[in-house]
Each structure stands twice: as C-alpha cells, then as structure tokens.
Amino acid sequence: MTQRHQGTPITSQTREYGLFLDDKLIRLHCTSYHPAADGTAYAKAKTDFAVDEGFSEIKPLCEGVMGSLVVMEH
C-alpha cells in the first residue's frame, strides 16, 4: 500500500495474525514501511522491493510472537 505520513509518501506491507479465543479475537499487526518516490500513486512502486525485504526480516519475529502467545484464563 502507498500512503502519506506527515506529507511524505511511504509504501508499506502488513500481515495480520488473528487468534479466536472463546468470543474474543486477538490480533497482531506486523508492518514494514519504506519511503516511496515522490508522486507515487500506485501500489507496485520500485520501493516495494525494499518493503518486501524489510518485511521478510521481521516476518520470523511476527510469527514467533504469535506462535509463543500465551493467554491466561481467570
């Protein structure tokens, strides 16, 4: 996704993890951001490759956090 943050165009990639527990939903959002070229108005910019690389670096961390989540019941 390409969007603006404080006037600067950025490209991001997000993966959302969800865990249903009884009637509750626990969500974890992992996102990688990278500055986009000025005027970028479409999702597949050259910076997508940098975002993909950045996300691949944090993906194991996100999966590890979700995989090690412990919910204690009262």
Structural class: alpha+beta
Major sheet, described briefly? Answer: 3 strands, antiparallel
Number of helices: 1
Outline the low-pLDDT stretches.
none
The total beta strand count reads 3
What is the topology, as strand order, of the major beta sheet? 1-2-3
Average pLDDT value?
77
Describe it.
The chain is an alpha+beta fold and 74 residues long. The chain has one domain. The chain is built from 1 helix and 3 strands; from the N terminus they run βββα. It has one helix spanning 48-67, and strands at 2-5, 8-21, 24-35. The protein has a 3-stranded antiparallel sheet, covered by helices on one side. The longest helix has 20 residues, at 48-67. The model has no long low-confidence stretch (mean pLDDT 77).
Write the layout of secondary structure elements.
Elements: E1 2-5, E2 8-21, E3 24-35, H1 48-67
Antiparallel strand pairs: 1-2, 2-3
Question: Which terms summarize this structure?
Answer:
3-stranded antiparallel sheet, 27% helix, elongated, alpha+beta, 41% strand, 74 residues
Briefly summarize what is shown.
With 74 residues, the chain is an alpha+beta fold.
